[in-house]
User: What shape does this take?
Amino acid sequence: MEHYIDLVGLKGFEKTYPGELSGGMKQRVAVARALAVAPDIIFMDEPLGALDSLTRLQMRSELLRIWQAEKMTILFVTHDVDEALQLADRIVVMSPRPGRIAEIVPVTAQHPRDLGSSEYGSLKNRLYELLGVSHSV
Assistant: This one.
């Protein structure tokens, strides 16, 4: 377990009570717990949704770093287009009720991604179209 505590950046906080941890630190604990059982796939359902904007950005970078170190499959559910574009190699867009796969959008850009690139902008516009949202958002 020590390896995972270090991997998620919580070395030195092993004896800290949950109530003393920040939201980002609690998310790191959740990731460490998931990794500790050596799963084939980690399922993450809106894991960053309750975090403030800056912590959320930092945790995206941390998740990428951990994913690159551990080389496991992560199924990540999010409603945040930028989050999906930053983290995913493939984005599965679901239709409204009943939920079905509307399209699978491959993301081929290398990590870390250039959020200002034309490829990123094109993919973002495509996702907004699939979601029925104006791409001028």
